[in-house]
Amino acid sequence: MAVTATVVALPARAGGPVPAGYRVVAQETLEAGVHHLTLRGEQPAQNVHVARLAPGVANRLRPVLSSDVLTGPSSGPETTSSMCARARCVVAVNGDFTGPGGALVGSMISAGELVATPGIPHVQLNLDAAGRGTVGEGLDFRVQVGSPGGQSVSALRVNRPLIGDAVNLYSRRWGPSTLTDTTTTEVVLQLDSDQILPRGTTQIRAATLRSGGNSPIGPGQVVLSGRGAGAQAVAAFAQSAAQRGGSLLVQTAATQSTGGSPHLLDKGRPGYPVADPDPFVQGRHPRTMVGITAAGETLLVTVDGRQSGSAGLTLAEATNLMAGLGAVDAVNLDGGGSTTFVTGGTVRNQPSDGGQRRVVSALVLVPPGQASPTPAGPPAAPRTAPTDPASLLPDLVNTLLQPILNLLGGQPQPVR
């Protein structure tokens, strides 16, 4: 299947190029360097919203986690407009896919904080401190504790269920406790910081070894959790750190990161098998996408679907649209009934569910000087698994990796 795009150039004031087959029906400047276009396509009918961010503006993009926490009684999905309102956003779209149990599928870094490492192999939109974006597989990170006695332990995952004989690190972004089982050995680390998970090197004030799992995570604390060989490494580090102190190192190549799938455009070419017969690929659905142009602009794009006035797009059609808008790299985010485009707290598109769906995350542009969203209130609904075909990743993930997804997405109750 060929993926092609024909670009019709419009004047610069019109907000950039417009793909063939589409016309501009409305345009506005949301703030300096942020232009909102509403496009109309025909054959079949399509309603498209585009936010074009000038180079240098995307350093204010922030992934926002619904309810600010991944597990526990305070966790739950949230509407995109609610997350936008908490961030006083200029513009926002819905974010990453939701896995079994309502779990965040990909990794997330928000304002430098490593919220979670990837749940499964996943495409990531990564932004550096200047807002320069790249799209690629996985996440470049390093999480390690060390003591002057020479004991060091690296964490394989952050804020994910512990699988096998490994070592994980948990922060309060995970929840009030680690939710690990009785086979787990853990060390509670009191950090010399009031940040949830500080970036860089942070000194450890105290290290408390615990057995039996499900350790509480208090303010200023993280928990290193291990099983099997991982438990032995955790215990050895705890003994060394209790005597000599230690430090926590958290390094990430990106300052902001959110997950998606698939990689629509990779240096101007499709980054996925366009002939894949999966309905996720070939079906027309509402779509949410992010693109990066050769000039360094960032595009936030939604397409309505499953409506008489807007059919939605196949992935090939979505790829053509992004190329026609000027993107050379692009990633597909959660779609279907999750697709939402918000400006200033107001929903501008027509979600296919008839109203906003509560989702696991959003990608928002905060105003200048806005550091982070305000805290979330109590959740309106529990986290649940998706059923929308445009929110379900292709069969490769849903079939071959389902056992892993079940482990990663669940919130096991600890054995008491």
Structural notes for this entry:
There is one protein chain. The chain has 416 residues and is mainly beta. The chain has two domains: 21-108 and 255-404, no CATH class; 141-252, Sandwich (Jelly Rolls), CATH 2.60.120. The chain has helices spanning 80-86, 229-244, 279-282, 315-324, 395-400, 402-409; strands spanning 7-8, 18-19, 22-31, 34-41, 46-53, 61-65, 91-94, 108-110, 113-116, 123-127, 133-137, 141-146, 152-154, 157-158, 167-170, 185-191, 200-211, 221-226, 246-252, 256-260, 263-266, 269-270, 287-293, 298-303, 327-332, 341-343, 346-347, 361-365.
What is the domain total for the residues?
2
How many strand units?
28
Strand-residue fraction?
25-35%
Largest sheet, if any?
Answer: 8 strands, antiparallel
In terms of per-residue confidence, which ranges show pLDDT below 50 for 5 or more consecutive residues?
A: 4-14, 395-416
**For the residues shown, what is the average pLDDT?**
90
> How far is the N terminus from the C terminus?
55 Å
Helix content: 10-25%
Shape: elongated
Radius of gyration: 22 Å
Based on secondary structure, the structural category is: mainly beta
So how many helices? 6
Please list the strands of the largest sheet in the order they lie side by side: 3-4-5-24-23-25-21-22
